């Protein structure tokens, strides 16, 4: 009986060893990935609370999160983020609808790319914020100009990444498809488009970040709602915790958008080992 109990304990230890090793590896991975960020926030909290930083300018994180919670529960920040995401989402969707098809065709049709590339490069090198006053004169100070300036800035990462993805399709894949009798249309939909998806998603992620950045700038000019307006209004009224709370809320929205795009990319590009 003693021998049997000893064997049971040994088996339990052996079974627990792999689980402990897996837990240990995951813990090390989390520390390596988020340890520096955690130290940064801890240092921020300690420095602001201890008076090493001016708490009136850089408040402690606990006050910021209290302001964030109050702003969400009372509805002020919730309404602002809803309106901001509507603006950015509409502009981002329009950039996808225009940028991906145009990029696919420009990457395939050389004369079209040669004709459009100079003007696209000119517009790409011109800051969207520099063009914003022109958009306001043409479209007014309402929603249309705000959405359009975000669309303008978000379009080029998608367009250029799509063109690059089409051009970088492996020639051996195209040759093999032609050998098996694939026509031009089949070659486009079955080979070129799927092979371009990883590059397209790189552009989508850059475009989503650009859309959120331009959103704040657009809402700081002539808006009475939105996260950008909330940041400026809080600064003018010296509500610094609320200002930081709005900034953090926008950062969380950006992280969420990026995470969604990463998940979609992994689902659509399961064949690509670099996405795992």
UniProtKB/TrEMBL annotation:
SUPFAM superfamilies: MetI-like. It comes from Kluyvera genomosp. 2. Belongs to the binding-protein-dependent transport system permease family. CysTW subfamily. PANTHER family: ABC TRANSPORTER PERMEASE PROTEIN MJ0413-RELATED (PTHR30151:SF0), ALKANE SULFONATE ABC TRANSPORTER-RELATED, MEMBRANE SUBUNIT (PTHR30151). Residues 81-261 form the ABC transmembrane type-1 domain. Keywords: Cell inner membrane, Cell membrane, Membrane, Transmembrane, Transmembrane helix, Transport. It comes from the Bacteria. PROSITE patterns: ABC_TM1. The keyword Cell division does not apply. It is found in: Cell inner membrane; Cell membrane. The chain crosses the membrane at residues 34-53, 88-107, 119-141, 147-166, 187-218, 238-264. Pfam families: BPD_transp_1. This is ABC transporter permease. InterPro entries: MetI-like, MetI-like_sf. GO terms for cellular component: plasma membrane. The keyword Cell inner membrane applies. It is a multi-pass membrane protein. One of its GO terms (biological process) is alkanesulfonate transmembrane transport.
């Amino acid at each position: 009986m003693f021998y049997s109990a000893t064997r049971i304990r040994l088996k339990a230890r052996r079974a627990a060893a792999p689980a402990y090793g897996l837990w240990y590896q995951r813990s090390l991975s989390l520390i390596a990935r988020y340890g520096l960020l955690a130290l940064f926030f801890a240092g921020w909290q300690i420095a602001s609370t201890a008076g090493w930083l001016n708490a009136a300018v850089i408040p402690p994180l606990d006050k910021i999160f209290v302001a964030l919670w109050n702003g969400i529960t009372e509805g002020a920040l919730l309404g602002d983020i809803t309106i901001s995401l509507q603006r950015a989402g509409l502009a981002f969707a329009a950039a996808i609808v225009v940028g991906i098809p145009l990029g696919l065709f420009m990457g395939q049709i050389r004369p079209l790319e040669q004709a459009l590339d100079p003007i696209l490069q000119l517009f790409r090198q011109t800051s969207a914020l520099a063009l914003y006053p022109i958009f306001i004169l043409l479209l007014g100070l309402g929603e249309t100009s705000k959405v359009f300036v975000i669309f303008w800035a978000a379009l080029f990462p998608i367009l250029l990444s799509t063109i690059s993805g089409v051009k970088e399709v492996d020639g051996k894949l195209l040759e093999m498809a032609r050998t098996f009798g694939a026509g031009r249309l089949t070659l486009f939909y079955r080979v070129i488009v799927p092979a371009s998806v990883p590059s397209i998603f790189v552009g989508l992620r850059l475009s989503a970040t650009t859309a959120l950045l331009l959103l704040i700038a657009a809402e700081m000019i002539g808006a009475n709602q939105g996260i950008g307006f909330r940041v400026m209004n809080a600064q003018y009224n010296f509500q610094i915790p609320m200002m930081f709370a709005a900034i953090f809320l926008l950062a969380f929205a950006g992280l969420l958008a990026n995470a969604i795009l990463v998940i979609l990319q992994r689902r659509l590009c399961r064949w690509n080992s670099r996405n795992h």
